[in-house]
Amino acid sequence: MKRWTIAMLMAVSTVLLGGCATGTIRSSVTAFHEWPATLPSKSYVFERTKEQNDSLEYRSYENLVRNELARLGFEEAPASVKPALKASLSYNISSRDVREVQPVVVHPYPYWYGPAWRGYYRPFYGPFYDPFWYAPPVVEQRVSQYTLFTRQLKIQLAEMAGGKKLYETTVVSEGTNSSLAAVMPYMVRSAFTDFPGPSGVPRRVELKLEQ
């Protein structure tokens, strides 16, 4: 009985530790590309819709993409220079209600609990003296309800002349945070992780949240 109880406690601890996945943003990233071995120029401009051009939120996310492109050696072309590439991005967020039923291991009573006949002057009972210490735990069903948000980001790089697409990536991230602005920096970084990466191969990118 003692060995069984210890094994069960270890299993419960493992489940609890495995569930502590806070502090990270996980994204599913899929990129399709026909990236050339060499590019004559890495100059680019952003191509915006009218709605995007009037959106402060969009411009904030555009700056995130601009920083990542600069890290990869791309240069935003000034107005006087004809760029070789054009970049575009779009994003959205949706939500759905989730209901989960999970088994939870609960001890039927704590170690200090005992029958009433022990009385006021009952002695201390430890694992080697209390016959109720090793009682098997009880599995209860716990119901949890929450809203799950799906955040999606799409980024494209295409040739300015002719509009041939060279790179397009889709980033999908799910979580309980409803703020797209809070998650977007990590999604943009995930979009360009190992750029250009394998074409058409879904990847899982995990980034630690910065304090």
From TrEMBL:
Question: Record's Pfam families?
Answer: DUF4136
Q: Where is the DUF4136 domain?
A: 30-197
Keyword Signal set for record = yes
Annotated organism of origin: Noviherbaspirillum album
The leader peptide range reads 1-18
Q: What is this protein called?
A: DUF4136 domain-containing protein
Under the heading InterPro entries, the entry gives: DUF4136
- Record bears the keyword Phosphoprotein: no
Q: Could you tell me the keywords of this UniProt record?
A: Signal
